[in-house]
Amino acid sequence: MESQSPQNRTRLKQSIPLVRKLLSFHRRPFSIAVSGAAVYALCTVASSFAVSRLIDRVIQPFFVNGEDVDRAFFVASCLIIGIAIIRATGVVVRRSFAGVTQWRTASSLAERVVTSLLGRPLTWHLTRQPGDLVARAGVDADAAVALLAPLPFATSVLVLIAAAGVALIVVDPLLGTVALIILPLMMLLNISYQRRVDRHFVSAQHALGAFSEAAYESLEGYSVVKAFGAESREADRMASISKRLREARILAVKGRATFDGFMDAMPALINVCLILIGAHRVHSGVLSVGELSGFVYLFTLLVFPLRIIGYVFSELPHSRSGMDRIDEILDETELGAPLVRTVRDARNAAEIRGLTLQYGNVATLADVTFTVELGETVAIVGPTGSGKSSLLMVVAGLLNPSIGTIAAGRTSIVFQEPFLFDGTIRENLLLGDADPALLDAALRISCADEFIRDLPLGLDSETGERGVGLSGGQRQRLALARALCRRNDLLLLDDTTSALDSTNEQRVLQFLRELSPRPAVLMAASRPSAIRAADRILFIDGGTIRGEGTHDQLLQNLDSYRELVTSYEMGRSDG
User: Fold this and answer.
1) pLDDT digits (tens, 9 = 90+) for 427-478
2) Cβ(55)–Cβ(294) under 8 Å?
3) CATH number for the segment(s) 5-330
């Protein structure tokens, strides 16, 4: 026991900053909840005196002495009903504002986490699991505020114990002393319970975070899982994680169930002892029947609030583990180096000099230098993993280069796997700084106007989460149209037309060339038709530009380019 005492003090020291941090968000509703709880506590003590008065002045005189007690009955009834109404009001105020405090704080925590995540560079996000980050803003925020619901009630227990202690001593010093000895023992049992289940709740919270992360990843990569026939392996992985979560939760619930059962039985046994001692005191004339009844009634009412202390202690590790996981995100101050970027001059759409991008000791891009002229279409061609997508993300400002400079104006990027929000097509197209005047032209250029006309609600049709209601080609066309709804100088396409058939791909590329003013296009391409449509080609391999020129020039002068394009053409013919 002595060795555990410092551990308990450490937990208390850790809990005080947690409570202070949680209450810093919305103090006003919490103060109102505490006030309601205090009213409940005082009315609880007052109700025992009302019960004592009812027994001594109404029930006993009427049944024992046959007295007329109509007036006394009316007064006692009004007193009991009045106290009950005020007490119920206190309960309603306490519960309502405790709930308001809890969920407003959860919302504030989640908003703070999301704001922090939005401020991180993409290089930071690439080192983290998206499911884990979603869990920090979701289940961890909910876990962190779990303490706030019972906390106002728990604070009123102090008022209740103080007022009840005085009342019990006033009624009977002997019985009051016995009761006041028992109450601290029951609180010690609560603390002991908290110590035993602490590790189970922490384990359960971490398991829940892992499960949320795995579920997100599984849904995010469902197409990859399906493509590789890994459904059974993924199911086994989810089953293993859910098993750990279930086991941790079962251990925590077992601890609480054992404690609850003990706390249900203990007050009944103590009441039997108090009644036996009290009966002797009544027989000696020290107590009246009503005073003994009020005493036992008050002690019984004290038991449930004392159990709230145990509930608060049980929520402490739960809230602390959730808050710890949130703080891990909020306390990370390293956001990455600022992007080295300047505004382009009027001669070029983009100018990249000496660009190097490293992850640890591995260089994804090495000493990349090239220029994209105004109105020019440049294709980036290279084998899988050569750095095409990384180069586009650096130019777009989504990745910070390790070395080098980027001179570019306003850019729009369209990824191979476009992301659509759950909303209407119109809402997805006109996000942010989009120009509604460009909408019709953008839909025509991207060849999205045709399938939109066939939809029952047209632009007001719902896309579903991540555009689940649309085909891959339709999503790509909408993503391209969204980029074209902005008056940007440089359009970055990451194999954007890969899900289109060859006819629509040619139409899209031709429409882009006919625009006036014509935007510069820098695109990662793997289809021969898209490669041939480019004015100039950058052949990249191993993160380095190995060749630059037109399609015909590279075919004639660069063997590795010719082999790659030939494999592309054979792949298309085989398909």
Assistant:
1) 888 877 777 887 888 888 877 888 888 888 888 888 877 777 787 778 888 8
2) yes
3) 1.20.1560.10
